[in-house]
Amino acid sequence: MELTYLRTFREVAKWGSYTRAAEVLGYAQSSITTQIQKLEESYGAVLVERFGRSMKLTLAGEALLQYANDIYRLHEESKEVVSRQSRGILSIGTIETLAAFFLPPHLQTYRQHFPDINVMIQPGNEPFIIEAVKEGALDVGIILDPPFADPELHCSILREEELVIIASPAHKFAGTKEVLIEDLEKESLILTEEGCTYRAMLLRTLKSKHIHYSLSYEFGNLEAIKQCVMYGLGIALLPRIVVAEDIEKGRVVAVPLVHPDFKFYTQIIYSKKKWQSKAFHGFLEVLGASNYQNE
C-alpha cells in the first residue's frame, strides 16, 4: 500500500472534503476519489461516507486514521534519522495572548538556531489545542491554565502569569493595591470569548460567591477589550503581559485580583509518543521546558 494513499486519507479526514484535500495536496479531485477507492478496496471496507456537503469517516475509517497517524509519524522520524537534518515544520497551537505577548522573542531565538524549520502557529482555545496535540495534529501546545496534567501528555510549567483587573485611570480601582472577588459586585465586565480558561474561572467564582455583575461586552480580540476599557466601558480580567505597555503609558490601570484559585501558568504540552527530533528538542530548550514537568 502506498504511503501517498494514507496521506490523502488523512487530509480528507482532516478537512471533511475531497475538494479541500485536493487543493491542499495539489491533486485533481478525481485523483483523491480514486486513491480513497483503492484504499477501501485494499481494506475491504468503506472508510468515508457523505453526510450533506461533507465527508465523514465511518467506524472503519476512524480505526484506520489512528494507524495512519502512527505510520506517518514513524515515517517522519525515519526521514530525519536517515538524513540527520533539522528541516521541516514545527506546528504550535496556542492562544492569542501567548502568541502575541510570550512567543515572539522565543521564536526569534529559535530561528537563529534552526533557520530551516518552518514554524506554524495555530490559534485556538485550550480544549482545541489539547485535543489536537493528543491526535498528533499539532507538535506542541502552549496553554495558559492552572497546573495541567494528562496521562497522554508531557506537561511542563514555563512560568506563572499574573492576572490583573484592568480599568480606565478614572475608575474607582485606580490607586488601589488589590481587588478581591467581592469588589466586583455590580461592575460592568468586558470578557474574552468562551473557551478562555481565566474567563471561565472568573465567571465560576462570581457565581459561587453570588456576586452580581453586568456583562457589557465579549470579544475574541484582546486589543478590542483594551480599547473598551480605556474608554471607560467596563473592566476586564487579563494577564499582565497583555497590558504591560498600556500600563506604562498610563492608558489603563492594573490591579492584582487576589484569590487562591487564580493561579495561572504558561505551560507547554506535547504527546508522550512524540519523537523528539533535534529541532523539536531545541524548541523545548529555548522555552526552558525541562525546568519542571508534571506528568
UniProtKB/TrEMBL annotation:
Gene Ontology terms for molecular function: DNA binding
Domain HTH lysR-type: 1-58
CDD domains, per the entry: PBP2_LTTR_substrate
Protein keywords: DNA-binding, Transcription, Transcription regulation
Pfam families found in the cross-reference section: HTH_1, LysR_substrate
Family, as annotated: Belongs to the LysR transcriptional regulatory family.
The protein, known as: DNA-binding transcriptional LysR family regulator
